[in-house]
Design brief:
4-stranded mixed β-sheet, 5 helices
Length: about 600
């Protein structure tokens, strides 16, 4: 090695007790083949390795005979491990002796103190570890770099979005912003449970304060996946709601929080659907009721104008609208009733024609002294001669014998016969019936067993009460029949022994049963319709074979027969009967 010192030469260090000054010329160290291996500038203290003109405190330059791939500068640990390597090409390696880029790091990288800004590019890392930047995203979206392209399944749209659980949170120390602010987002584990494609997974173990995130465990959110699922969800919602689209500025479809809907009309809180215009239905419409305004309508027939108000039976509860279903049913029922009356009139006309024919052909003549001289007395007078009084819808007989009686309902559905019950746990049942009066005799027939006694405790106008001696653990059902004792037309003669007949014993006529509802056999009786001009009362007969609505079946009997238990059975009236003896077979009003 050769050391060349240009004069004058001095140094500040001591050499044999003499101070030598290295000024103003540098100290140069060279060998036979390479010059300027080490240069120490006398002024400024600059040190150059491989250069005679150092440009900083320490300047290192590639030796002329060195390859660019050889280390120019190396920093090693005390054990000899390379920590930092600088190549002649300018590449710097941290943790590697062969840096492949301007700055190559083999290990983890942490950056702190970065400045914030509103502009810039994305910082990206390629699959080979290269750091790049992009103006939009790190990963390209061209179809030229993709394969297996397929539309998202329907389950990855709205269903995924509805399954996601947005949360607020703070990061633990060592992650994110170290918990300095509250963040909004999702939990990787929850998101992966909704759809595995919406999460990203750990490729190396990650140590956290709560434990280790293992390789393959959910570790982050696939935000590209969230975006795609959200777009599909919006498209699916649009497909569901596109029918309500309207380019006009006015609202055409409104749904309030309760589900009430308005179409071209404001929402009516009392109605589920309000339509401000004509509604067309292609198919069948189902509803519990169809209602419409119910104004009085006027119709002209020639010179005559008739105002027709809808019947109350067809109106809505508030009376302001007509229930179309009720109106149709009412019209059918009215038509059927009218048809029955027409049939009855036709039957009468046929009967009158037959009678007139017999009078014309001489089959019937009026004999002199006949009890029925229609030329000189009325029908009422003729019936009176037989002991029958007829006046104002009341017919009075001294004795009436019939095979069956029919208790008809009036226009309000009321009848002198019916059924009711004393409910379990109660001792009194009050029955509302307009045919009940203080003067009525009421026959009660229990149809369920009774533990104890029972009686008719009270009779008022329009109601009566049945009372048990004690409450039962079951409903005590019973039938009843109301007989009125007031309203006779005349006082009949004193009772006399009625002549015996085939159906009597000892001069007393026995009636085995009273039929409440049933058909009149065509071979034994004819149907008589009430006169159209007379009010409809409970005394009119019916020919319909249908349940009465009061619990009695067709052909049922009101003859009081004790139930099987034999206790507390029979009839009661005026509160005087507390239950007949067990051997009582029939009952009658007191």
């Amino acid at each position: 090695m050769q050391i060349t010192v240009d004069t004058p030469f001095a140094t500040t260090c001591q050499s044999g007790g003499t101070n030598v000054l290295l000024y103003p010329h540098p100290l140069l160290v060279a060998n036979d083949s390479v010059s300027n291996m080490l240069t120490i500038m006398a002024k400024g203290g600059l040190v150059g390795i491989g250069t005679s003109t150092p440009f900083s405190q320490l300047s290192v330059s590639t030796l002329t005979q060195q390859s660019g791939s050889l280390p120019l500068f190396t920093v090693a640990s005390t054990t000899g491990s390379t920590l930092l390597t600088a190549l002649g090409t300018g590449n710097i390696g941290v943790g590697t002796t062969s840096p492949w880029s301007t700055l190559s790091v083999n290990g983890t990288v942490a950056i702190s103190g970065l400045t914030s800004g509103n502009t810039g590019n994305f910082l990206c890392l390629t699959t080979t570890g290269q750091v790049t930047s992009g103006a939009s995203t790190c990963t390209g979206s061209s179809e030229r770099i993709k394969n297996s392209i397929a539309p998202l399944p329907a389950s990855s749209g709205l269903a995924d979005v509805l399954g996601l659980q947005p949360v607020s949170f703070k990061y633990d120390q060592g992650f994110g912003d170290n918990g300095s602010t509250t963040q909004l987002g999702f939990i990787a584990e929850d998101t992966a449970a909704v759809d595995p494609l919406l999460a990203v997974y750990a490729t190396t173990p990650i140590q956290t304060p709560s434990g280790v995130i293992k390789v393959g465990d959910p570790a982050g959110i696939n935000w590209n996946g969230i975006t795609a699922a959200s777009v599909l969800a919006i498209q699916q919602l649009d497909a569901r709601t596109r029918f309500i689209g309207n380019s006009a500025s006015s609202t055409s479809f409104t749904v309030d929080a309760s589900g009430n809907t308005g179409i071209k009309a404001p929402v009516n809180a009392s109605r589920a659907l309000t339509v401000g215009g004509d509604a067309g239905i292609q198919g069948t419409a189902y509803a519990n009721a169809f209602v419409a305004p119910a104004p009085t309508q006027s119709f002209s027939f020639g010179t005559t104008t008739i105002s027709a108000a809808l019947p109350s039976e067809a109106l809505s509860p508030d009376g302001a609208r007509v229930d179309l279903a009720k109106l149709a049913t009412f019209a059918v029922a009215s038509t059927q009733a009218l048809s029955q009356r027409v049939d009855a009139v036709s039957l009468r006309m046929d009967s009158l024609e037959a009678r007139i024919q017999k009078l014309e052909d001489g089959s019937i003549t009026v004999a002199s002294g006949s009890p029925l001289d229609f030329s000189t007395s009325t029908v009422a007078d003729a019936l009176k001669s037989f002991g029958i009084l007829v006046k104002e819808n009341i017919a009075q007989f001294d004795t009436l014998v019939a095979r069956q009686f029919v208790a008809a309902k009036d226009s309000n559905g009321d009848s002198v016969a019916g059924s009711d019950a004393v409910l379990a746990g109660n001792t009194v049942a009050e029955i509302k019936n307009p045919y009940a009066h203080p003067t009525s005799k009421i026959v009660i027939t229990p149809t369920a067993s009774v533990d104890g006694s029972w009686y008719l405790s009270e009779k008022d106008e329009g109601s009566f009460r049945v009372t048990l001696s004690k409450a039962q653990d079951h409903d005590v059902t019973f039938d009843y029949f109301i007989i009125e004792t007031d309203g006779q037309l005349a006082t009949p003669s004193a009772a006399s022994t009625t002549p015996s007949s085939d159906s009597s014993e000892g001069g007393v006529i026995h009636t085995t049963s009273v039929i409440i509802v049933g058909d009149t056999p065509e071979d034994t009786a004819s149907t008589t319709e009430p006169d159209a001009s007379s009010p409809d009362t409970g005394a009119s007969s019916t020919t319909e074979n249908a349940p009465s609505g009061d619990g009695t079946e067709p052909g049922g009997s009101v003859a009081a027969t004790p139930p099987d238990s034999g206790s507390g059975s029979g009839s009661a009236e005026d509160g005087s009967d507390t239950g007949p003896a067990p051997d009582t077979a029939t009952s009658s009003p007191q």
